[in-house]
Amino acid sequence: MELKRKLSLFFAFAIVLILATASFAMLVAAKYPGYIEDEVGGKIYLKQSPQRIVSCMPSITEMLFAIGLEDRVVGVTLNCDYPPEAKQKEKVGRMTMNIEKILSLEPDLVVMLAGAQSKDIIKLKKHNLPVYVISPDIYVRQVMSSIGNLGRVTGNTKEAEALVNDMHARLEKIRAQIGTEETKSVIVIVGTNPLIVAGSGTFIEDMVKNAGGRNIANQNGIPWPQYSLERIIIEDPDVIIIAKGIAEGKKGIYNDRRWQSLKAVKNDRVLVVDADLISRPGPRVVDVVEQIAKFLHNI
């Protein structure tokens, strides 16, 4: 059984890497003028390479800046704080978009996130805005795909391809370092009072998988299940990961007698990860995978 588990881990990593390689071998820029299809099947007409871009999510802003489009980004959200230069851009809303502000910026491309922004996407499209929708929020490989697509639609294919190849190489290095080492059981805490953890089909779970971990909170198919401390004690994970800024974080766990029976606490295997890093499906995702992998496997 142990050999079977190790082989399963090895082949899981291999499949991820094969898919990534197949997707990003060569990026081809969009043809202008013409219709461009986004990641959910929507189409927009572009006369030329977009020169005035509005980003409606922090993760999207990070992608655009990472592929060299900072000079073309004219609007971002109030939550867009990375890289620091993004803070200087015009603000178009926080959780809800300010349509009037976006219209005033006269964008030739508005990039939005599927699912989380579905209502605003419909509203902006009704104003005939060129809305390009991406959907990178479940798998790490989807992040790389979205970066590639943003490079394609904006004409920055070389920059996007270089970034994706670097991310792919770093993931491959992690896989090689972990090899067939036994997976560690992990739980990721994203909220307290009540206790909320990353469950099944979440972006966080996929990061844990890529780092050689096994999410113990994925049994019920619920993305963000509410957990009890008693349940965590019964499941007794090897490692606890907690988003920075959640209650008292690591200190709170270590000082609470109820947690002290857990082997993760006894063995000092509690990792605090920057909340933005762990929640944003953007170009820094590999940073998180590396951080978790190093903690899990001492690589």
CATH superfamily of the largest domain: Nitrogenase molybdenum iron protein domain
Percent of residues in helices = 40-55%
Rg, Å, rounded: 20 Å
CATH architecture of the largest domain: 3-Layer(aba) Sandwich
The CATH class of the largest domain, by name, is Alpha Beta
Output the keywords.
299 residues; alpha/beta; Rossmann fold; 2 domains; 6-stranded mixed β-sheet; 5-stranded parallel β-sheet; 43% helix; disordered N terminus
Task: Describe the structure in your own words.
Helix 6 (157-178) packs parallel to helix 12 (285-297). Strands 8, 9, 10, 11, 12 and 13 form a 6-stranded mixed beta sheet that branches. The chain starts with a helix and ends with a helix. It is elongated and about 60 Å long. Strand 1 (34-37) and strand 2 form a beta hairpin. With 299 residues, it is of the alpha/beta class. The longest helix is centred in the first third of the chain and has 23 residues, at 2-24. It has helices spanning 2-24, 58-66, 99-104, 118-126, 140-154, 157-178, 203-210, 229-235, 249-255, 263-266, 275-279, 285-297; strands spanning 34-37, 43-46, 53-55, 73-76, 90-91, 109-113, 131-134, 184-191, 195-197, 213-215, 226-227, 239-243, 270-273. The protein is built from 12 helices and 13 strands. The protein has 2 domains: 10-171, Nitrogenase molybdenum iron protein domain (Rossmann fold, 3-Layer(aba) Sandwich); 183-297, Rossmann fold (3-Layer(aba) Sandwich).
